[in-house]
Design brief:
Layout: E1 3-9, E2 18-21, E3 26-30, H1 37-49, H2 53-57, H3 63-66, E4 77-82, E5 88-92, H4 104-110, E6 116-118, H5 119-125, H6 130-140, H7 144-182, H8 190-200, H9 212-222, H10 225-268, H11 274-286, H12 303-352, H13 362-378, H14 381-385, H15 391-413, H16 423-495, E7 501-508, E8 518-524, E9 527-530, H17 532-535, H18 538-557, E10 562-566, H19 574-587, E11 592-597, H20 600-612, E12 619-628, E13 632-637, H21 641-650, H22 654-676, H23 690-704, H24 708-732, H25 743-759, E14 769-772, E15 777-780, E16 790-792
Parallel strand pairs: 3-11, 3-12, 6-10, 10-11
Antiparallel strand pairs: 1-2, 1-4, 4-5, 7-8, 8-9, 12-13, 14-15, 15-16
Helix pairs in contact: 5-18, 7-16, 9-16, 10-12, 10-15, 11-12, 12-13, 13-15, 16-18, 19-20, 21-22, 21-25, 22-23, 22-24, 22-25, 24-25
Keywords: Coiled coil
Protein name: RecF/RecN/SMC N-terminal domain-containing protein
């Protein structure tokens, strides 16, 4: 499933089509910061996962907003053609890629994006909390689904614990309410207090709270039921009259609305026009553009003109139809409300029968019900439009109705005093209300206690399940950690040979009650069980993070063919970067790499390592030479630095050649200082130039080398550089004398640099020479070199 080509359009910092033709080879990409390297990595991640992880980690940055390039956001897409089967597919922000079935296993591995390593992710492995480290590693090894299950179980456990607390709080509230109802301080006093009140009314005691409901029913039977019924009837009369008066108001308003609609209809159209609407709509279905004769009169017609007239007439009439519909709806509501008035009047009649004082109003109420029924039957659209029925008619009815209802209210006002309950009944009614409230709370309390028992049982089961699952999950993850331990130590030994770091450990906190966390420990300088963050340099921590990632990747991704590294060696020195090259090409040579860097030194080291490991034909080495907002990154195949300089000299561009030569010299001197452990004066900003590096590099080399012949060659080369170095200075800055410099002088300057460079490479394989202090030699750094150059040193 190696990548044949990548096509990126309108994505992140790539405004238009960018195609990387890899042909299944690895990609090594050099580019300064801000030239689009990370946009390419983001595109690969988006293609496989549908996400850009570092946007998500920033919380407020939306993928849909910041993923597409602002120039052509609608065209945003990432497509990949795979070498196997020449299968091409793409992802957009609205569609997903499709893959052949034989890709399924690798695609599943790719979905979490953990074949991509950025330096920010190294920090997630090292400089982070144990919990964040645990979560990140879980994603790499594919245990995140287990973590989701564990989180869901934990949430379920917390939910059930909350349910237990909620029910316990309800029980406490029940207890407080019960005490407040009876005004007691102790729950044991509930039954004695009830019996005390019953005794005051010369009623029998109850022997348990279970008998309270029976007690309440008994109290209800000994109160005067007739008095209660009369009071209820009197209350119902008042409520019913108020309801009727409110409905009367609604009917009055509906009549007002209906009259308004009727007036608009009469002003704009004749009523008969409404019947035309259906006819005109039917005619549209009959008449078409090819109709030559009218279907009604059979006279010849212009079908287009006729259709236009019909449509205009319909447009005019349809507004009338809407007004007519509104009027009809108002009339329907009026009929429904009058029906409700009659229902309430019938109810009122039944309650008046309880009271002889109000029976004088019955005959008139019955007559008003008949009148309203007759009026309701007369209400329809035609009669309303003809003025056969109107709001004025209803006004006459409701004036008489309201008069009668007001008389009933006046007549019922004096009745309440005559049907008041006795003083004993009042006391018994208070007890009934109090005991009913108490009984309701006691029943709630009993129900809550039953629910609490069930809830506690569920919560306990949930806790056991969560802790058991968590314990097993953590043990299994620890087993994975233990299996990668050997590889991490081996990888780290490749990066840091003969350094006092050993006994690497990743340890999961196995406490099942705690969330996942991963502790990182090593033996450093003989001190066991040390957190490397407390002692190690930033470069050592970054290299440790890289080793952990690679070991976990190897364990979890198996034969997954792709490995992406985005600027991961920022803090490592030159010697350790060489060792990173060795680690990658020695342990992962079968992978397709996509490696980006802004560091020219590591870029050259990676190219040299390709030669050392016979991987030159497996790589495409490219350089982003520029980036702009309109076109994005411009990528070209990498040229060997010396070949590029000789090409510039051949073109006669002395200014450019001088600049390139000076940059070549700066890179070479810094590399030599790193390799020989030369002492460079410290600079606050860390930006070293030729003047800072030349003397330390030259002095250190000449001081180290015992071989006189080699020493003389090297000293002679530095002398030639001293004679021509002025050319680089003149052409690298604004200088009036630059015009006097010839192209030949610039060429001699550049060749003197290249000669020093050649002298510091192995004559057999062209790998750079490294200083091995313990052996007191300068030796070819390529461990696979068949005839390594060795030079005695001090």
């Amino acid at each position: 499933m190696k990548i044949k080509s990548i096509k990126i359009d309108a994505f992140r910092g790539i405004p238009q089509n960018l195609e990387l033709d890899l042909q299944g080879k690895s990609l090594l990409l050099l580019g300064e910061n801000g030239t689009g390297k990370s946009s390419i990595i983001d595109a690969i991640e988006f293609f496989f996962t549908g996400k850009i992880s570092h946007l998500k980690s920033k919380g407020t940055l939306s993928l849909n907003e910041y993923g597409p390039n602002t120039k052509n956001p609608d065209k945003a897409s990432v497509g990949i053609e795979f070498k196997s089967g020449a299968h091409f597919t793409s992802r957009t922000f609205s569609s997903n890629p499709s893959f052949p079935k034989n890709f399924n296993e690798n695609i599943e591995l790719a979905k979490n994006g953990k074949f991509i390593l950025r330096r920010s992710q190294i920090l997630n492995l090292i400089n982070t909390t144990p919990a964040q480290r645990y979560a990140f590693i879980s994603e790499i090894i594919g245990a995140n689904e287990l973590e989701k299950t564990s989180t869901a179980m934990d949430q379920a456990k917390k939910y059930l614990d909350d349910e237990v607390r909620k029910i316990e709080n309800n029980i406490k509230k029940n207890n407080d309410d019960i005490k407040n109802i009876l005004q007691v301080q102790d729950s044991n006093n509930i039954l004695p207090t009830i019996n005390d009140w019953l005794g005051k009314e010369y009623l029998n005691n109850i022997n348990s709270l279970e008998k309270l409901e029976d007690c309440i029913n008994h109290l209800k039977t000994i109160t005067k039921s007739s008095d209660k019924e009369l009071i209820g009837a009197l209350d119902n009369i008042s409520v019913t009259i108020n309801e009727i008066l409110l409905i009367v108001k609604d009917v009055t308003q509906e009549f007002y609305d209906a009259e308004t609609y009727k007036e608009r209809i009469n002003q704009s159209h004749a009523q008969s026009d409404l019947s035309l609407i259906k006819l005109l709509k039917n005619s549209l279905e009959i008449i078409n553009k090819d109709t030559a004769n009218c279907p009604l009169c059979e006279n010849k017609v212009n079908s287009n003109e006729l259709l236009e007239k019909v449509n205009k007439r319909l447009e005019s009439l349809e507004s009338l139809q809407e007004i007519n519909d509104n009027m009809n709806n108002s009339l329907k509501r009026i009929k429904g409300n009058i029906q409700l008035i009659n229902r309430d009047l019938a109810n009122l009649l039944s309650k008046i029968d309880y009271f002889d004082e109000l029976k004088e109003f019955k005959d008139e109420l019955e007559q008003q019900i008949i009148s309203l029924n007759v009026f309701q039957e007369r209400i329809n659209a035609n009669s309303f439009l003809r003025e056969d029925v109107s709001g004025h008619d209803f006004e006459l009815l409701h004036i008489q109705l309201e008069k009668n209802l007001n008389n009933i209210i006046i007549g019922s006002d004096g009745l309440s005093d005559s049907i008041k309950p006795s003083e004993r009944d009042k006391r018994l009614n208070v007890l009934i209300k109090l005991f009913s409230d108490l009984d309701e709370n006691l029943k709630k309390q009993e129900e809550n206690r039953r629910e609490l028992k069930v809830a506690k049982n569920h919560a306990k089961i949930s806790e056991i399940m969560y802790e058991e699952f968590s314990a097993i999950k953590k043990r299994k993850i620890q087993e994975v950690y233990d299996t990668v331990k050997e590889n991490v130590e081996r990888y780290y030994a490749i990066l840091h040979p003969d350094e006092p770091y050993e006994n690497f450990n990743l340890d999961v906190d196995l406490n099942p009650k705690k969330k996942g966390s991963t502790d990182l420990r090593m033996t450093i300088f003989g001190e066991e069980n040390q957190d490397p963050r407390a002692i190690s340099s930033e470069g050592h921590l970054d290299s440790l993070g890289l080793c952990i990632f690679l070991a976990l990747f190897e364990k979890s991704h198996g034969d997954f063919p792709l490995l992406v590294l985005d600027d991961v060696v920022t803090t490592m020195d030159s010697r350790h970067r060489e060792n990173v090259c060795q680690l990658l090409f020695q342990e992962f040579s079968d992978r397709q790499f996509i490696i980006t860097t802004h560091d020219a030194i590591w870029y050259d080291q990676l190219k040299a390592a390709q030669r050392v490991h016979n991987l030159g034909n497996n790589f495409k080495n490219c350089n982003i030479i520029k980036w702009d907002n309109e076109n994005g990154p411009e990528i070209r195949p990498y040229k060997v630095r010396w070949d590029k300089i000789t090409e510039i000299i051949a073109n006669g561009d002395k200014q450019c050649a001088g600049n390139e030569g000076r940059r070549y010299l700066e890179w070479l001197l810094m590399d030599l200082c790193n390799r020989t452990q030369a002492k460079i004066p410290a600079k606050y900003y860390g930006k070293y130039e030729v003047n800072d590096l030349l003397k330390p590099a030259k002095s250190r080399l000449l001081e180290l080398i015992k071989d006189e012949e080699y020493n003389q060659k090297l000293e002679s080369s530095f002398d030639k550089l001293d004679q021509t170095i002025m050319m680089g200075n003149l052409l690298s800055h604004e200088n009036l004398m630059a015009g006097n410099v010839s192209i030949d002088e610039v060429e001699r300057f550049c060749r003197s640099i290249n000669h020093i460079h050649e002298l510091t490479l192995c004559s057999n394989c062209k790998a750079p020479l490294g200083y091995y202090q313990n052996l007191k030699i300068l030796r070819c750094s390529n461990k696979k070199c068949s005839d390594p150059l060795e030079i005695k040193a001090k």
